[in-house]
Amino acid sequence: MDDQQRIGGVAALIASAAIVVGLVMFATLLSDFTTGDSDPGESVAFIADHYATMYVWNLVVMIAFGVVLVPLALALYARLRSGASVLAQTATAFGLIWAGLLIGAGMVTVIDLGTVADLVESDPDRAESVWLALDSVEQGLGGTIEIVGGLWVLLISLAALQSGEFPKALNYLGIVMAIAAFITVIPALEMVGVIFGLGLIVWLGWLGVIMYRGIATRTPHTPDE
Question: Is there a contact between 152 and 73 (Cβ–Cβ < 8 Å)?
């Protein structure tokens, strides 16, 4: 159990770091990127000029994040199952589903980037069509709507509250983040997802430190509880 918790803690810290690296790269090296819906011509031109950077960015924020999510979800289940079995099981299912969606979206994206970059010089119009089609698939799998990730964070937070695990402030933060994630289903409010993304940095980092250091956080119960 201790080894699994440490592995889960490392996974949470890596996931938090992946988001930080992704945000820094997006704010600096990829700040001029526009989505296909905005201007497909500008998008494919940007991809051709920044292919390597976008490839690395997707490896970090989608594939690497999705991979480390698996051991984290399993470690959290092991920690929470005794005090909140049903919630922990359901949370783990959504955690693994989210990991699969992110890895799938990341793999589609990195292949898509290479295809578009190759087509830009020989057939720009086709490159735009390919980008528009595949970008929709990528967004659907791991894009701006954060329902699956929000459900995982919410269920983990509720399970932790029920079992008395982790600081209450951490669990309440997770609930607030989940609410922000659910709001992203409203097209006009998709930007609220930023709260979920930034909150994940803190939530995962905090969780990672607790799990890696083996900090006992279970809330003591009184005899009559």
Answer: yes
